[in-house]
Amino acid sequence: MAAPGFCRMFLSYMRFLVSWTLQLIFLRILGVFSPTKQRQILVKVAKATQFWDCPLEFDDYADTFLSLKAYLDVCWAIWYDVTSTVRVGSRAPGCDVIELDTGKTRNLLEYENPVFFICLVSLSSFLTQVYLAEAHPPGGWAFKNNINIPRHRSVQERLAAARILQQHDDHVPCTIVADTMDNAVARTYACYPDRLFVILDGRVTYRGGLGPEGYHLDEVRDWLQNFTGICRQD
């Protein structure tokens, strides 16, 4: 007999799957009869997520929202989410990550910084960013006029892609490491395509929503501000 926890998890996933499928069908039908109304809805979706603030134009990615590849990508991300046991208050798993400069494998928890550190430096300096599987590779959920980074087939390719990110965001002085090729961090923390966490003394004390719509740096700043009471704004 299936465990109650698994049944709840499976039902949660199926509810999402049915709801998401019906929304996509509705939007596709709406596009046939009223493309203008469909576009208005997609603009609202983009504005509610990181998409609206990215350097790309709306038309570079709008059509991909309703594609099969986008649908499958979202389904996998939600599956990771409902099957993950990492919640606020739980012990933070020590997944392996790979250093960009040396290629050495280290434990993710080795990058934990003292919370008081945020009072002395900017928020970005406090963060550790784990580069995961490429979210929008050519042949996948790809955008027009985007940086073309193929799906990683080896550790070397993932590290090379992470270095592109490092160079592209060189104004952001955060530590960047890469997930292993078995996507241990993405699966364990349910953070694909992106998600924010605060880990304190080996435990998860903040778990943000699943990105892009649930990715809010301001929430992390507010959490740290409330925790210390004296931290400055970035």
TrEMBL record:
Molecular functions (GO terms): thyroxine 5'-deiodinase activity
Domain of life: Eukaryota
Pfam families the record matches: T4_deiodinase
Keyword DNA damage: no
InterPro entries: Iodothyronine_deiodinase
The protein's name: Iodothyronine deiodinase
Keywords linked to the UniProt accession: Oxidoreductase, Selenocysteine, Thyroid hormones biosynthesis
Family: Belongs to the iodothyronine deiodinase family.
Function according to Swiss-Prot or TrEMBL: Responsible for the deiodination of T4 (3,5,3',5'-tetraiodothyronine).
Gene: DIO1
Species per Swiss-Prot/TrEMBL record: Branchiostoma lanceolatum (Common lancelet)
Highest classification ranks of the organism: Eukaryota, Metazoa, Chordata, Cephalochordata, Leptocardii
GO annotation terms (biological process): hormone biosynthetic process; thyroid hormone metabolic process
